[in-house]
Design a protein that fits this description.
There is one protein chain. By secondary structure, this protein is of the alpha/beta class. It has one domain: TIM Barrel, CATH 3.20.20. The chain has nine helices and ten strands. 45% of the residues are buried. Helix content is 37%, strand content 17%. It binds zinc ion (2 copies). The site of one zinc ion has 6 residues, from loops. One zinc ion (ZN) binds next to loops.
Length: 268
């Protein structure tokens, strides 16, 4: 596979509380790697979700824009196309998406929580098929809104489950089919590989919590599009060993990899 990793759309900044780097620092790193396009996608403020060190604070929203504008200027001087984004969860009782899309170029869907019995449950803590089905249905509803141009780490729902059953995997097949139909790429998330390697927990792809080989075998069967992204939480991660490993995994699994994210899903 020819590696054409010259575009990147999933990165986080100092403002979420668990990442490093300002948008302009990512531009500087992108220049080093001859990138053509760069998008910054901080974790969106969400009033209902736990805020501590996990996402942009509402009060920093304008500051985020200032930093994005500064980065965009610098990017254009260096012939890099720069996009302003957010990574965000979808809940049908939350009406922030069109508001954000008025300000931004794109939203990527990172469903880190589901809503069940008036409670939010972390996707990192699922145990049951029932939770996976709620996750599946939430993601399907989200993709149909047209607000999102990428589905981040679609297989994150298996994070806490060592050996998901066939039924659990198959529960996600409709997500893959819908993504294909709507031409929305599924993300093969390099941060899952990065974390596993840095924590010294993994020697083989088959042992990684996400991306899961078995899930991406289904993606290959369905022929849905896949985009590899860093999910960078510091600038050095923009184009590192985990990106290379991700392309290896994609090649092993014969995935239909794309490189450029469409910015025009949502029609105002
Ligand atoms: Zn993060
Ligand atoms: Zn992310």
């Amino acid at each position: 596979m020819i590696k054409k990793h010259i575009n990147s759309y999933h990165s986080h900044t100092i403002l979420c509380g668990h990442a490093g780097g300002r948008p302009i620092d990512y531009v500087k790193e992108a220049i080093k790697h001859n990138f053509k396009e760069l998008g910054i996608s901080e974790h969106a403020p969400m009033a209902n979700l736990r805020n501590k060190n996990s996402r942009l604070h509402e009060k920093d929203y304008q500051k985020y824009f200032k930093l994005l504008d500064e980065a965009k200027k610098f990017a254009s001087l260096n012939n890099i196309k720069f996009y302003k984004g957010l990574e965000i969860e979808y809940f049908n009782h939350t009406k922030v998406y069109e508001h954000y899309l008025n300000d931004l170029d794109y939203l990527i869907l990172g469903q880190h929580y589901i809503y069940k019995d008036n409670k939010y449950i972390s996707t990192f803590k699922f145990n049951t098929l029932e939770e996976i089905i709620i996750y599946r249905d939430t993601v399907i509803e989200a993709l149909k809104t047209g607000y999102f141009n990428m589905l981040c780490h679609p297989d994150l729902c298996f994070f806490n489950i060592d050996n998901p059953t066939d039924e659990m995997y198959e529960a996600l097949r409709p997500v893959i089919k819908l993504a294909k139909k709507l031409d929305i790429p599924l993300e093969l998330n390099a941060n899952g590989i990065r974390r596993a390697v840095l924590e010294g927990k993994v020697t083989e792809f088959s042992n990684i919590k996400y991306p899961r080989v078995k899930f991406f075998e289904m993606v290959a069967e369905e022929g849905a599009k896949v985009i590899i992204s860093s999910d960078a939480h510091n600038v050095a991660a923009l184009n590192d060993f985990a990106i290379l490993e991700s392309y290896k995994m994609a090649e092993d699994l014969n995935l239909n990899v794309i490189y450029k994210l469409k910015m025009n899903y949502f029609k105002k």
